[in-house]
Amino acid sequence: MEVVITSLFFLLYLLKLDKKMKWLFWPLADIFNSVIAAVFLLVVCLFAIIIKTNNGTLVGGVFGLVLLVLCIVDAVVLFRKISFGGPRGRNYPAR
């Protein structure tokens, strides 16, 4: 499910539909996606590490925890880039 949601966000930004649908604050929706993914990964990875039926389960749990950290970093970076009071546009480098 998370792969489908992330793919939809990627497709949305790729087709620039975020500019056409201005009624939704897309960066905030992307942050919610990262937070939900982090919570889901936390639960699954903790179960995998606690149960550890074989070495593969343990390694998968550890890799999942690394991915959990990346999801949290993604949410924090996006939250710092959001300007709640400013204009909603793309930032282009100055020429």
Automatic annotation (TrEMBL):
UniProt-annotated location(s): Membrane
InterPro entries with a match to the protein in the record: Marvel (IPR008253), MARVEL-CKLF_proteins (IPR050578)
Keywords: Membrane, Transmembrane, Transmembrane helix
Domain MARVEL: 1-83
Membrane topology listed for this record: Multi-pass membrane protein
Any one annotated GO CC term: membrane
Transmembrane segments: 23-51, 57-79
Protein name, UniProt field: Chemokine-like factor
Species whose genome carries this gene: Dromaius novaehollandiae
Source species taxonomy: Eukaryota, Metazoa, Chordata, Craniata, Vertebrata
